[in-house]
């Protein structure tokens, strides 16, 4: 497959996925880029994933608000303009700060992040968060929960 240049303009946005009430807009799949997946996350105050790891790199750029990232035994408060990079296998979590926040997420080769978000949107409707179902969907998409 030959990689093709492309542009995603605001009017091109696809409907956001709903993952536990937060919104995730897929900007580019790994198939489209030939490697990385790129998403925009809009998180509500206090929300965010539990500690987890996966076998792909993940980088976050804070666009708006504050996000508290935990990894490697430390917690860092990231403000607009901050970049957080997490190599594959790193156990990490994050929480959106007061008023919520917006992140750009770029995942590395082998990422199944878009597939994970799509499955969570489809299989775990907001307000019906069953921990066993969530764990199963995450495991099916290459995510290990816990520290």
Describe the protein:
With 147 residues, the protein is an alpha+beta fold. 17% of the residues lie in helices and 38% in strands. It is built from 3 helices and 11 strands. The chain has a 6-stranded antiparallel beta sheet with strand order 1-2-3-10-5-8. Strands 7-6-9 form a 3-stranded antiparallel beta sheet, with no helix packed on it. A hairpin with a 2-residue loop joins strand 1 (17-19) and strand 2. Helix 2 (113-123) packs antiparallel against helix 3 (131-140). 26% of the residues are buried.
Keywords:
147 residues, alpha+beta, three-stranded antiparallel sheet, 3 helices, 11 strands
Q: State which percent range the strand residues make up.
A: 35-45%
Quaternary form: single chain
Which overall shape is indicated by the principal axes computed on the Cα atoms?
globular
Please, how many helices?
3
Question: How do the helices and strands line up, and which of them pair or pack?
Answer:
Blueprint: E1 17-19, E2 22-28, H1 30-33, E3 37-43, E4 52-54, E5 58-64, E6 67-71, E7 74-78, E8 83-86, E9 92-96, E10 101-107, H2 113-123, H3 131-140, E11 143-145
Antiparallel strand pairs: 1-2, 2-3, 3-10, 4-11, 5-8, 5-10, 6-7, 6-9
Helix pairs in contact: 2-3
């Amino acid at each position: 497959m030959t990689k093709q240049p492309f542009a995603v303009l605001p009017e091109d946005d696809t409907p956001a996925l709903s993952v536990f009430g937060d919104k995730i807009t897929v900007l580019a799949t790994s198939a489209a880029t030939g490697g990385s997946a790129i998403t925009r996350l809009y998180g509500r105050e206090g929300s965010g994933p539990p500690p987890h790891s996966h076998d792909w790199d993940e980088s976050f750029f804070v666009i708006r608000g504050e996000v508290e990232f935990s990894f490697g035994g430390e917690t860092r408060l990231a403000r607009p303009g901050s970049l957080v990079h997490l190599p594959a296998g790193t156990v990490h979590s994050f929480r959106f700060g007061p008023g919520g926040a917006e992140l750009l997420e770029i995942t590395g080769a082998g990422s199944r992040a878009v597939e994970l978000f799509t499955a969570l949107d489809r299989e775990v409707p907001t307000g019906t968060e069953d921990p066993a179902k969530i764990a199963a969907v995450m495991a099916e998409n290459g995510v290990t929960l816990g520290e």
